Amino acid sequence: MKKTVNIALAVLLSLSLAACGRARGGAEAPQGGTQSSEGTQNGEAVQSGGTQDSGSPSDSARDGGAAGSASEGGAAGTETVYAYETQELWAERDGNRIYGVIYIPRDAGEQMPAVIFSHGYGGNYRVGAQYAQALAEKGYVVYCFDFCGGSPGSRSDGSTLEMSVFTEQADLEAVIRMMQGLAFVDSSNLFLMGTSQGGAVSALAGAAHEEEIRGMVLLYPAFVLADEANRLFRSVDEIPDTYHFMWMDVGRAYFEPLIGYDIYEDIGNYGRDVLLIHGDADSIVPLSYSERALEVYPSAELKVIDGGGHGFSGADAEEAIDYMLDYLEGARTTASTGSADPAGNTGAASGDAAGSADAITSAEGKQIRMTAGDVEVLITLNDSAAALDLYQKLPLEMELIERNNFAKGMTLPSPLSTNEPTTRNYEIGDFGYWAAGPDLAIFYDDIYDQTIVPVIPMGKAVEGAERMADTSGTVRLEAVEGENEE
């Protein structure tokens, strides 16, 4: 994407809350019955019924929830406008539960592109409602959530005194993993969107997970945060345990990592296309911060809202939505039924067995030896496209990574094929594949009796995968010779 700037008028105001009130659209505000933050919709964004607390939407999330009405005014010409439904959906990070609402279009396909929306400082999931509704009507799954400790009224766990930009980054990364595990999400078309501080957090998470994130839409991202922290405190020693910042109390943990920090050094590591949208009358985060981001991103575009403040509503929000829809349609790829990875690489077989495996049409009954240190597990594969795809990639050596308190995983060089229905029915000890992402997961805790994450079973391990719970380091996967030969 060519770097461009579309600026009608640049009015850079000083960073003050007093001036904020004059900026059209208002600033982000704390949660409450009424909100003036970022063009938040009036009323409750979550329709009644169909509530899910299990951490993953069940089949009823597509059939039994409350449907959002598709607005005829949102369609241009004969463009399809999808009805959608919403469900409450929880993620988890380090024992903290993360509350959110997912918007699921109806009849938009088996796997749909998805957008994760991150609210700004002191906001909540409702801030993203106007964007989520517009995107869902165009066939995008959208998840809006509360950061842990993101505001005094956050429905997620955690305290504002423990919150920081980097704890919020960890929250977002947990949400990314959760979204990758949803069978109806096309994880090769997973986008991040954020406003203000949520935009800065999205930028950090995207840079840390470039291969997993197709693109980002950053609305008036708060790249000003480190400058503001350094303006308030000349050194770490001056930071109090509690500080009333803007409209809520935060802790030392919020400011300490920002002292001397240059966020631009990190966000510039994201090499894919980025869309920045910023108002030229923003007095909280001046436009110049997005202009600087335009210089550090390898591929970015900046759209400027004439007269827009720190938060969009009305005509400003409609203009921003038009920009983001154009960007998303251009950045997304057609979902593949093969094994193309998010970067566009083919899922060709790799390793010593690649050439000889081409003629194999089924992996059913074939065995894989998984070795980590002195632990060895034999896996008998089932008859699925994903199992065959895995077998064709052998041998593989990968690092075993802690995913959470009930799973370890390994990241494949390219995702496995998922052109078939996934199942949530499996036994503990199965060697499973996270259906919508590039990870192989080893499940070793019976929490999976609750079927939190959908997987494609690879076959029953001869010795349960729970044996891998105490292992670490390099894992080798190789075909077992002899009985595997045709």
List the helices and strands and how they pair.
Blueprint: E1 5-6, H1 17-20, H2 60-63, E2 66-68, E3 84-93, E4 96-105, E5 112-118, H3 129-136, E6 141-145, H4 165-180, E7 185-195, H5 197-208, E8 215-219, H6 225-232, E9 242-245, E10 248-251, H7 252-255, H8 263-267, E11 274-279, H9 288-296, E12 300-305, H10 314-331, H11 354-357, E13 367-372, E14 375-380, H12 385-393, E15 396-404, E16 407-411, E17 430-434, E18 439-443, E19 455-460, E20 473-479
Parallel strand pairs: 1-12, 5-6, 5-7, 7-8, 8-11, 11-12
Antiparallel strand pairs: 2-3, 3-4, 4-6, 9-10, 13-14, 13-20, 15-16, 15-20, 16-18, 17-18, 17-19
Helix pairs in contact: 4-5
Structure description:
This protein is α/β, with parallel strands linked by helices and 486 residues long. It has two domains: 5-331, Rossmann fold (3-Layer(aba) Sandwich); 354-479, Cyclophilin. Helix content is 21%, strand content 25%. It has twelve helices and 20 strands. It has a ten-stranded mixed sheet, with helices on both faces. Strands 14-13-20-15-16-18-17-19 form an eight-stranded antiparallel sheet, with helices on one face. A two-stranded antiparallel sheet has the order 9-10. A hairpin with a 2-residue loop joins β13 and β14. α4 crosses α5. The chain is globular, with a radius of gyration of 23 Å. Mean pLDDT is 75; it is low at 2-77, 335-358, 419-426 and 447-454.
Protein traits:
single chain; 486 residues; alpha/beta; Rossmann fold; Cyclophilin; 2 domains; 10-stranded mixed beta sheet; 8-stranded antiparallel beta sheet; 21% helix; globular; disordered N terminus
